[in-house]
Design a protein that fits this description.
heterotrimer; A alpha/beta (156); B alpha+beta (360); C alpha/beta (176); A: 156 residues; alpha/beta; Beta Polymerase, domain 2; four-stranded mixed β-sheet; two-stranded parallel ribbon; 6 strands; C: Rossmann fold; five-stranded parallel β-sheet; two-stranded antiparallel sheet; 15% strand; globular
């Protein structure tokens, strides 16, 4: 086991969170740059604050342990482009954003059509008055959220 | 081309402790594709953040998962301390490291029991959990709880470890280390374990990077990334080195986790040696969080990210928890491609799934 | 509880639990606390189980699963709700996806509180469940002996009858 001194080069100091605001159109371009630099998509989420969506995509560098977050602020009816062509596993995060927040994201690789969690309440994280917007057509098409899934759940 | 069929796996299954549903597209006993279907444990606890005082919300976050409970509490208080710039006293930082490493040991011993049980190796399951009970007795002696500790607060910790408890912990850890070494040597040297695990579910370094794996999944494929290298809490003073393997198969993942148990024991010993004898347990602070912060810590299963956003009210506006198994689900689907149908439960257990963390 | 005649088998299902109570249920069956010395065995098959232990609350996705597991178990059966979340919904009661405790979906006989419930309390719950199972088993045997040779009444909730008149007549003589 190594010595107790702190001169091992595996320890890096705690870094600041870097949050970079960008526009919605620049998202795919920036994601391609991040992929070229060898960064890993660490997480993606959104919040509803001050009557707008704040969408964050965070990228981690496994060599230097730096952490960069791209921040996009859009309105209720905006549509974002998915980055799942570049980062395939982004599809899980984007499906979650769509189901819980009602944020429309187009061209996802793996699309659960609002049935990732199969909850009954539509966009539960939005305030009540913001939930019914006619652009949420995917939710209306699927109907009752748990009826088809219930028949599949046989104890094997 | 053989005949394809879709086999539903779960949510109730004898080998899995938690409900997860996978649709396995199987062609003549080989899995072609796996589509996960989650949502059985989804409680929606992130939605409670605007309804609870930020200091009381800690108790909800701790109960996201009973196995990784200390890590969740730690990440949450770190994110609040990051927003409010609260400096945690030195003794509290060492205490947090000690409890976090002991919680990591209980998690890995429990995982070892489940994996052995999935093989049919039930006596090893019982032995691993018997050793785990000894570590849980130490946790109960110091914190009062076996799984959910509630010993953290924003700014520090609530309890101290007295010198008598410290001596007992160090003595017990010597015995626990000896017993664990004997038991894990039996597991790793066993012929049937090696036949079933070596070469199964291989994830190369490039594949692991492309699917975004984290934690022991990534370290077993050669990516030397561990959040403890950031030096949060007291890790910067303890000379930490991550446990890495280059093989990338299920056997390598088992090896990495078993070696992490011994690394944790060593970290606890060093932390006790360096911890100051006297000191404050917590820093007082005033006011409400105003700002946002990403905290990253290393849970037993990988990298966990805690994001808090507040605007001066006593409740947070948004709390987001990204747990390691959410990131490893895609890695699971990748390892299942081309696997034999009979290996599916073992492969699911080698990613160390914690579905209640994933779905919150 | 004097003598245990038939050893009941346990089925444990986790419905939206944080895993704390699940791990404690499994710890109760391991050598340190050892509930197996009372004859209970943890099985994965609902068709062979007598006691259903539910941890965690019920949410919209797992309500049909729990109901199906309960229906698949043959009578007599006992249901134990382990942990505060299974008793009433716990800390997550007000979340948007939760329906409540286990008794929102299946009838519960024994409630074991705690967060996470300690193995000693779970052992107490298992012993009470075994005693209750003996009692129900005796009542079942008595019923069988008294009504020997008669047509078994059909449970109206399972066979939604195509014949409404027959269903009405059977509802008057349904099994307890």
């Amino acid at each position: 086991m190594p010595e107790e001194t702190n001169d091992k080069n595996t320890i890096r100091p705690v870094g600041e969170n870097v949050i970079v605001p960008i526009k919605a159109e620049e998202l795919v371009g920036k994601a391609i740059e991040m992929k070229k630099d060898g960064l890993r998509l660490s997480q993606a989420h959104c919040s509803w604050v001050n009557n707008q969506y704040e969408v964050s995509y965070s990228f981690a560098n496994d060599e230097t342990l730096a952490y960069t977050t791209l921040r996009i602020c859009v309105g209720r009816t905006a549509e974002l482009s998915s980055i799942s062509e570049i980062y395939p596993y982004a599809a899980f995060y984007e499906n979650e954003m769509e189901e819980l927040f009602g944020l429309k994201i187009r061209f996802k690789d793996l699309d659960y059509h609002n049935k990732l969690y199969r909850i009954k309440v539509k966009a539960p994280f939005l305030p009540e008055d913001q939930r019914d917007v006619s652009t949420d057509t995917a939710q209306e098409k699927t109907g009752a959220a748990d009826a088809p899934a219930g028949q599949k759940e046989d104890a094997n | 081309m053989g005949k394809r069929s879709v086999i539903p796996f779960g949510p109730q299954h004898p080998v899995l402790p938690e409900p997860i549903h996978l649709d396995l597209v199987v062609e003549d006993e080989r899995v072609v594709e796996a589509i996960p279907n989650i949502g059985f444990i989804h409680r929606g606890l992130e939605g409670l953040a605007p309804d609870r005082d930020f200091q009381k919300y800690l108790y909800v976050v701790e109960r996201t998962c009973g196995i990784c409970s200390f890590g969740h509490g730690l990440g949450y208080v770190e994110s609040i301390e990051g927003i409010m710039n609260v400096e945690v006293p030195e003794k509290a930082r060492y205490l947090r490291v000690i409890w976090a490493e002991m919680a990591r040991m209980t998690s890995h011993l429990m995982w070892l029991g489940f994996t052995a049980d999935a093989f049919g190796f039930e006596s090893l399951f019982y032995q691993a959990w018997r050793i785990r009970e000894r570590v849980l007795d130490l946790m109960e002696m110091t914190t009062g709880g076996r799984l959910i500790y509630s010993v953290l607060k924003v700014g520090g910790v609530l309890r101290d470890i007295s010198p008598e408890m410290q001596k007992k912990i160090l003595d017990d850890l010597n015995e626990i280390e000896k017993e664990t070494r004997d038991m894990t040597k039996t597991f790793l040297d066993d012929y049937s374990v090696q036949t079933r695990l070596k070469g199964v579910g291989v994830l190369t370094k490039q594949q692991a990077h492309d699917v975004g794996a984290c934690g022991p999944m990534a370290r077993a494929s050669g990516i030397a990334c561990d959040m403890r290298m950031r030096g949060y809490e007291a890790y910067a003073d303890l000379g930490f080195e991550p446990v890495v393997s280059q093989d990338g198969d299920s056997y390598a993942r088992c090896e990495v986790r078993i070696n992490e148990i011994f690394a944790s024991i060593e970290l606890v010993r060093r932390a006790f040696a360096k911890m100051p004898k006297e000191g404050d347990l917590a820093t007082a602070f005033k006011g409400n969080p105003n700002g946002e912060y990403f905290a990253r810590i290393e849970q037993p299963r990988g990298e966990a990210i805690f994001y808090s956003e507040g605007h001066g009210k006593p409740t947070l506006d948004r709390f987001r928890l990204r747990t390691p198994t959410f990131a490893n689900l895609q890695a699971l689907c990748e390892t299942l491609k081309g696997a034999e149908y009979a290996d599916v439960p073992i492969l699911i257990l080698t990613i160390d799934p914690c579905i209640s963390c994933t779905e919150r | 509880m004097g003598k245990v005649k038939k050893s009941p088998w346990l089925l444990h299902y986790d419905g939206s639990s944080c895993n704390g109570c699940d791990i404690e249920v499994l710890a109760t069956l391991t050598p340190v606390y050892d509930a197996e010395r009372f004859g209970v065995v943890n099985t994965g098959d609902p068709l062979q189980a007598d006691i259903l232990m539910i941890t965690g609350g019920i949410n919209q996705q797992n309500a049909p699963v729990v109901k199906q597991l309960y229906d698949q178990m043959p009578r007599p059966k006992v249901v134990v709700a382990v942990g505060t979340c299974a008793c009433s919904g716990g800390v997550f009661r007000e979340c948007y996806n939760m329906l409540g405790g286990a008794d929102s979906t299946v009838p519960v006989d024994i409630y074991v509180p705690g967060c996470a419930a300690r193995p000693e309390s779970i052992m107490d719950g298992i012993l009470k469940a075994v005693a209750l199972f003996q009692k129900r088993s005796d009542e079942h045997d008595q019923y069988e002996k008294e009504h020997k040779g008669e047509a078994r009444p059909v449970d109206p909730s399972i066979n939604t009858a195509h014949d409404k008149a027959k269903l009405k007549e059977m509802e008057g003589t349904a099994d307890a």
